[in-house]
Amino acid sequence: MTGPVADVDLGCHLFRRLHEIGFDGRGMTRPSYGREENLAHALFMEVAAQYGLEMRRDWASNLYLTLPGRDRTLSVVMTGSHLDTVPCGGNFDGAAGAVAGLLVLCAWAKVGFRPERDTTLIVTRAEESVWFPLSYLGSRTAFGLLEPSALETPRSDDGLSLRHHMQDCGASPDLCGKAPVLDAAKIDCFVELHIEQGPVLLEADVPVGIVTGICGSTRYRSAVIHGQYAHSGATPRCFRSDAVMAGASMMTALHDAWIKAEAQGEEMTLTFGVCRTDETQGNFAAVAGRLELVIDIRSRDEALLERMNGLVIEQAFRVERDHHVRVELGPRTRSAPAVMDAALQADARTLAASLDIPFVSMASGAGHDAATFAMQGVPTEMLFVRNRNGSHNPDESMEMDDFMQGVRLLEHLLRKRAGSET
């Protein structure tokens, strides 16, 4: 199969520039609605202008780069991802999908290919919810799903509101709930390329994954267990209110439930990514009076997520009783699971086989903007690219050969949906 060929040198240039923009001395830090995210968006606009792509921003400063189709009344084919990172993250999470989409549109423009329908790259804002505890913030704003009250949410690093950071980046938060937004009925499909953030493709020794679904989540980002500080030698066990032992008991019970769920053939993950005592008061010779922790549960099974959430609450009550502590779980945040489109999956498998690109079908344990599109009824698919050393860390390691295989599959899939007349 032939077609426009994406420019690997342009891809290397974009990744190199993104590294220069985001490097913090160890990894990548491009905060949501921050200077580095702005510079990354500006880089994409600079390249898009060189290739004659149409450019626009919505009220939340999501970026849209479009190669116009022959019939602009037809529903649009879309691809895209994000350019923000977690603190001290890697250079490929999110960026790989945005770069891939731009390479496809630039390759089409370079050879004069004009699709039957508009084909648009969306570069979303603020996908990484570590900065604002709001899942899929950019894609949700694009569909008009953000409540105006969320604009007062503080960013984790400086405490300034989402509204403030939006305004500082040239967005118009006062238009939240008023400005035109994406209409799912006018979108033919959405395809997001992304690095895999786990080891499945490495273990299978294949470069590409065709995604079947995206896990939802239930999370407690600011849970606190309050005990009572006491002398470690002078306080017998029966008189203790030990926050650490209460937390350990709660975490162990939830972990045991995870093991049981897996034994019954259910799929989920459970993570306690933060577990810490108060560094100013906790010490070697004291019973801990305070423990902070976060709870992150993910699954494609909504019923399992709700069952585990009920267990979190149940265990909180139990350790309060058994360990004489007080548990504040704090607000719960959540996202719903999303199923990828069967027809797009079938097309991707057929195209990969015809292009001699080895692949496996697999689920996504991480959340992505693609989930928002799918939940709005847009036919949606994700393509994963092999990546070593996981993600959300400086050691993400994607080979350009693997990436270009993913780009080649993305190009053929988008061209099939957009119309292939030249």
Automatic annotation (TrEMBL):
It is an enzyme of class 3 (hydrolase). Keywords: Hydrolase. GO terms for molecular function: hydrolase activity. Its EC number is 3.5.-.-. Coiled coil: none annotated. InterPro entries: Amidase_Cbmase, Bact_exopeptidase_dim_dom, Peptidase_M20. Pfam families: Peptidase_M20. PANTHER family: ALLANTOATE AMIDOHYDROLASE, ALLANTOATE DEIMINASE-RELATED. Belongs to the peptidase M20 family. This is Hydantoinase/carbamoylase family amidase. It comes from Gluconobacter vitians.
